[in-house]
Amino acid sequence: EIHIKEPVEKEVNPHLLPGELLLCEASTVYKYIQEDGSNRGTYGKLVCTNFKIAFLDDDSTSDDNEPQLKNKIIGENDITLQCVDQIYGVYDEKKKLLTGQLRKYPEKLIIYCKDLRVFNFCLRYTKEEEVKRIVSGIIHHSQTPKLLKRLFLFSYASAAPSNTDGRNQTVMFDTLEDWRDELERTKGNVQYKAVTTNEGYRVSEKLPLYFVVPICVSEENILKYEGRGIPIWCWSCHNGAALLKMSAFPKEQDDSTSQMQKAFLDGIYRTISKPPYELLKTDDLSSSLPSLQDIQTAYTRFKQLFLIDNSTDFWATDVKWFSLLESTNWLEIIRRVLKKAIEVVECLERQHTNVLLIEEDATDLCCVISSLVQVMMDSYSRTKSGFQSLIQKEWVIGGHGFLDRCNHLHKSEKEEAPVFLLLLNCVWQLVQQYPPAFEFTETYLTVLSDSLYVPIFSTFFFNSQHQKDTTTTHESLKTQSGPFRFLTVWDWSVQFDPKAQAFLNNPLYAEKPKPDKSQRKTARFKHQRQLSLPLTQTKSSPKRGFFREETDHLIKNILGKRIGKLINSSDEPPNSFREFYDSWHSKPVDYHGLLLPRIDGPEIKVWAQRYLRWIPEAQLHGGGTIATAAKILDLMEEVQNLQVKMDEEHSQAISGDMHAVPMLRNSARLSSLFPFALLQRQSVKPALPTSTWKDLEDEDDLVKRDDEFVDLSSDML
């Protein structure tokens, strides 16, 4: 039985951004809060604008329940149109994917989001005409192909007041001076030069206006094949070795063209193999790493594990969690990418060899590997401004096709691939293994991944610098409003106030390098939970339940990876790699020096904060990494208060901003869903036996005769 409150007299209206238009709405919509099959929820209005889908609740969120990481642009019940993944309708308790024109309208609407939220709306009590309008409107504006100029990005840019330059010390790499400064910073200006050959995009529309090449490469060579076959500089190591990338020639060519291109490449290689460039190692990433299609397939399977409709579904899939996780192959792809990055690091660091990464357009996996290598080798890239500058250099200006890879325009699913998300997942592995080495937190990475789908920033909504420049110029002339001033995502004040921004900064960041006298073992932090299966299997023990002894303690430490087959796989690192890898890991960590991730099996983990934050069943009450963070932030605030008192006693001016560190009023109430939500409802595991759990009796790999009931109602993490 569903109790529906009487509509209040006060009209609830959506908060609209500049340029945002209300397109359709429906009243008397019921938003479910799924809990063990019950139909509890909230009554309100569902609206669709040219920017977002929003549910407007009559009960305004109280301060006590409001997330401390409150986004000023996207509310708790807001979904940007680009964040909508799939929409399902429920007809007579059966789910059906909704696309195009509908003959019959559903009684329930389920929206799956790309940030892994799931919204359930009941339309049974809504007027039929309103149902038709809202369902058709949501499907049309979020799922059908659209033109680039129809993105809300342009509506907002033309209507919003002139914004301040929010670069925040982030180098944008859109000027020649930025590239020259980077060459000087990395001491690469002896062997490499910044060129202006592509001004006016006369070489290629895929290349940026300015880029860096070896000094010996002539302008004639750059122009010859539209920039293909030209080694483009990414970064220089302290020992002079450099990381380069190159767009490959098309593989299917006639013989004469192929021979000419081969001769051209041979000439280029001979030129850059001479002193001062020394040795050169080439690596074709299209053959040594998974294809974009493989990456997309793996992530599609992987994200399904977290798009949970209700508690019943959660517990039904939970009993097969490890096998389902392994079958997605997502963690194995992360391992392979990190391994490839370490191989490149070894060439640069130990062998003093230049590395040339080759890919069809050098804008996908080249971006991933070059970024990871710099994060591992350059401590500047582990600061917040340094990491943002790295993303600008390698991805935004480097020409990664965000528009196609994120499928923002819904034009072609064939081009879609979560390449940038793959990078963030890999960086997260390093952040959680070596927290003091990074100025930013995992919350920063999570928020950055969410920003992929917020179309008020230009950062992630173009395929190239050329596309941004030409589209912007055309639209500006058309509207006669002067040049557009797009926002950059790096201005975090647009989304968060200073109190919330504090969660993006790591209070334990080791700002100055100090000799690490502790042994290697003590570098492991106790609060880092083992979120993966053990490396070796143990014998089953009687009276241990169907998870067996090897996973008994992991019932609390969910999220893992079975790697038995991986350790003996054919792609086991060669001896030189293993020697370099083991040698580094046997020494104390220098947080401002080289960092190598641990990649053996169980060390590769699931990014728990991003993928589990909307699932109350998977929360840790008063636990998780936030328990440590909360205590640290409380302690920092106490130190700040003491400092203020000391300043007052000495009659000194008080200049500190007391809101720099968030006040956690009651850290005991926090859960692992924090800071995206405070403590949520208590989830109750369904009582045994159920039909789902009875089915397990047929699965020999999970159930043994001597097994008995295991209580899964304890904390899953």
Please describe what this structure looks like.
With 717 residues, the chain is an alpha+beta fold. 33% of the residues lie in helices and 11% in strands. It has helices at 128-143, 152-159, 176-185, 219-224, 255-273, 285-288, 292-304, 311-318, 321-328, 330-349, 365-377, 384-396, 402-405, 419-433, 442-450, 465-479, 498-501, 564-567, 575-585, 608-612, 625-649, 691-694, and strands at 22-32, 41-49, 52-57, 78-80, 84-91, 94-97, 108-113, 118-122, 192-195, 211-214, 232-236, 242-247, 280-284, 354-359. The strands form three sheets. An eight-stranded antiparallel beta sheet has the order 4-3-2-1-8-7-5-6, covered by helices on one side. A hairpin with a 4-residue loop joins β7 (108-113) and β8 (118-122). α7 packs antiparallel against α9 (321-328) and α14 (419-433) packs antiparallel against α15. The longest helix has 25 residues, at 625-649. It is globular and about 75 Å long. The two termini are 34 Å apart. The relative contact order is 0.10. Keywords: Cytoplasm, Sarcoplasmic reticulum. InterPro entries: MTMR12-like_C, MTMR12_PTP, Myotubularin, Myotubularin-like_Pase_dom, PH-like_dom_sf, Prot-tyrosine_phosphatase-like. Belongs to the protein-tyrosine phosphatase family. Non-receptor class myotubularin subfamily. It is found in: Cytoplasm, Myofibril, Sarcomere; Sarcoplasmic reticulum.
Short recap of the structure:
The chain is built from 22 helices and 14 strands. It has helices spanning 128-143, 152-159, 176-185, 219-224, 255-273, 285-288, 292-304, 311-318, 321-328, 330-349, 365-377, 384-396, 402-405, 419-433, 442-450, 465-479, 498-501, 564-567, 575-585, 608-612, 625-649, 691-694; strands at residues 22-32, 41-49, 52-57, 78-80, 84-91, 94-97, 108-113, 118-122, 192-195, 211-214, 232-236, 242-247, 280-284, 354-359.
